Amino acid sequence: MNDLVPVTVKGIYMMKTPLGPTPMVLLYNGDKVLPIYVGISEATSIESALNHEITPRPMTHDLFISLLDCFNAKIKWVLIDTLDDGIYYARLIIQTDDLKRELDARPSDCIALALRANADVFVRKKVITKAAIDKNEIEEITRMAL
Amino acid sequence: MNDLVPVTVKGIYMMKTPLGPTPMVLLYNGDKVLPIYVGISEATSIESALNHEITPRPMTHDLFISLLDCFNAKIKWVLIDTLDDGIYYARLIIQTDDLKRELDARPSDCIALALRANADVFVRKKVITKAAIDKNEIEEITRMAL
């Protein structure tokens, strides 16, 4: 666990990119911030969880949590594990009394689910070293956000 | 089971609506068609499953299937159960050797998951009676689709 950095999910910002407005989730650890671009529906789901919104109908991540409940399973933590060629890879660690499993997942799904399950989000240190930027720098960027 | 109508998932069509282009999934039973508006990411996920595409990273519905696999659980079938005030309600029936559960879900999630699990999709007869339209009628509409 020594090379795992705990982060807090700050929020979603819509950023200008050459492909048009794209949502970005910010993960904070002290003065370091890891920005990750996410899909629009995952961004909506993350934002909804951050605001403790209960949607009239279950979103896909809510359904996932219902399925975990069926098996008395919990999300133990999630880990943003690797950054390779611009793509982040993450793992969802789930646990029951008898079983512990790691599932390959996208960071956006992991974050949306961790927020719903009050589970910790970790980022591997090498990913922070590679891609995190300074808090001041990101605050400048998000001030210019849409 | 007598009032459950089996349907096949025909595909996604982008329709013009007052709110802008909106994806619609078509469910066929003989000469009857049930059209259901769905979100853009659910539409993408349904289309991806219909085309047997393997995306480079697991989509949220793929992650759901991975979780089922962890527990040796299967999707037995899905049921579009009720239409109330313009909103469809559906149920996802999952089963293991020991357990059978029904989860409250949106039709779009149920369809995206059923296609991945090769599970049957049923619609309750009263929903077909209320909302299904004629095959000729929908074919006329989809000819005018975007």
Explained architecture:
2 copies of one chain form a homodimer. Chain A is an alpha+beta fold and 146 residues long. Chain A has one domain (4-143): Bifunctional nuclease domain (Roll), CATH 3.10.690. Helix content of chain A is 34%, strand content 40%. In chain A, helix 1 packs parallel to helix 3 and helix 2 packs across helix 3 (107-117). Chain A is globular, with a radius of gyration of 15 Å. The interface between A and B is medium-sized, with 28 and 28 residues.
Give the arrangement of secondary structure elements.
The structure is a homodimer of 146-residue chains.
Chain A: E1 4-15, E2 22-29, E3 32-37, H1 40-50, H2 60-70, E4 74-84, E5 87-95, E6 100-105, H3 107-117, E7 120-124, H4 125-131, E8 133-134, H5 135-143
Helix pairs in contact in A: 1-3, 2-3
Please give the largest β-sheet of chain A: 8 strands, mixed
The helicity of chain A comes to: 25-40%
CATH class descriptor name of chain A: Alpha Beta
From the 3D coordinates, which CATH architecture of chain A would you assign? Roll
Instruction: Note the gap between the termini of chain A.
Output: 37 Å
| Count of helix runs of chain A | 5
Structural class of chain A: alpha+beta
Seen as an oligomer or otherwise, the chain set is homodimer
Order of strands across the main sheet of chain A: 6-5-4-7-1-2-3-8
CATH H-level superfamily title of chain A:
Bifunctional nuclease domain
Kindly report the average pLDDT value of chain A.
93
Described by the principal axes of the CA atoms, the overall outline of chain A is globular
Poorly predicted parts of chain A: none
H/E series of chain A, N to C? EEEHHEEEHEHEH
The overall number of domains of chain A is 1
How many strands in all of chain A? 8
Q: Which pair has the most extensive contact?
A: A-B, 28 and 28 residues
Radius of gyration of chain A: 15 Å
Approximate strand percentage of chain A: 35-45%
Give the CATH topology of chain A: Bifunctional nuclease domain
